[in-house]
Amino acid sequence: MTVMCAWVAALLKQHLIKNYSMAYNLKDQTLALSGVLQAAVLVDKLARDGTVDHHEIETATNAIFNTNPSSTLDVYGSVQNMRTGLHSLRTMLNKEGKGVSAEVVRYGMSILHIGHKIRKNNKLLESLGAGIDKAKNQADYFKDQNHESVIGSLANAYLENISKLNFRVQVTGNPTFLQDDKIASKVRALLLFGIRSAMLWQQIGGHRWHFLFKRGAIVKAARELQTQGLH
User: Could you give the CA distance from residue 165 to residue 116 in angstroms, rounded to a whole number?
Assistant: First the structure.
């Protein structure tokens, strides 16, 4: 029998924090929050341009499939992998949202809302976990986590669970790209990556009021993480 995706199963028990061996700080929360912004930026780019860097898709699928991370950073592989999200987070908070597109801000806030909304929905989490497990099994079979069938399975897990909520992320862009099945699957997989990051952010102490009262501290943490990623 398939073991449910560990980070989803942990939500059912509300014990994810205990699965880590480190104390949490603002840098961990900032890194997780950058995952939300990175997903939002990449979804916007796919919707407008029809393409994103292969490595950034790989970072997203790695995060979804990493069922036993040793730290917050381990979820994403490296700080360098999160340069898009960290830059966008700093820009958004420094310029009160004016440094990134309105669509990116809307996608990010929507992802955070969905992450909060589904945390206590056990039935949905069980179904979502099963869908992620199916995609992971396919990745193991093909030995390629970015294989078209794997991305399709992740997209289907999103479609069968998240898309059935009464609140959804409304993606806008070039209709030609959005109507392409392969691009639409990548969009949904990236949204799932964003939701994984949003749930992680909440589980390690992230709160919406941080945007009001910790804005400067988050920007500083993001800058320090970016500097760390250059070494």
Answer: 12
Tell me the DSSP string of 25-36. Answer: -HHHHHHHHHHH
Residue 1 lies in a domain: no
Q: How far is the C-alpha of 201 from the C-alpha of 123, rounded, in Å?
A: 21
Contact criterion met (CB below 8 Å) for 89 and 33: yes
Domain count of the fold of the chain: 1
CATH of the domain at 134: 1.10.3890.10
The answer to whether residue 15 sits within a structural domain is no
CA distance 40 to 103: 8
Within a domain: 12: no
Please answer whether residues 52 and 193 qualify as being in contact, where contact means their C-beta atoms are separated by less than 8 angstroms. Answer: no
User: Got the DSSP string for 79-135?
Assistant: SGGGHHHHHHHHHHHHTTTTTS-HHHHHHHHHHHHHHHHHTT-HHHHHHHHHHHHHH
pLDDT for the residue 7: 61
8 A C-beta contact, residue 183 and residue 42: no
143 backbone φψ class: left, alpha, beta (φ>0; ψ -120 to 50): left
In a domain, 18, yes or no: no
- φ/ψ bin of 14: left (φ > 0), alpha (ψ from -120 to 50), beta (otherwise): left
| End-to-end C-alpha distance for the chain, whole angstroms | 43
Beta-strand ranges (E) seen in the chain are: none
pLDDT in tens, 11-53: 554 433 344 434 468 999 999 999 999 999 999 999 999 999 9
Q: Domain of 31? A: 23-229
The Cα 184–Cα 6 span in angstroms is: 26
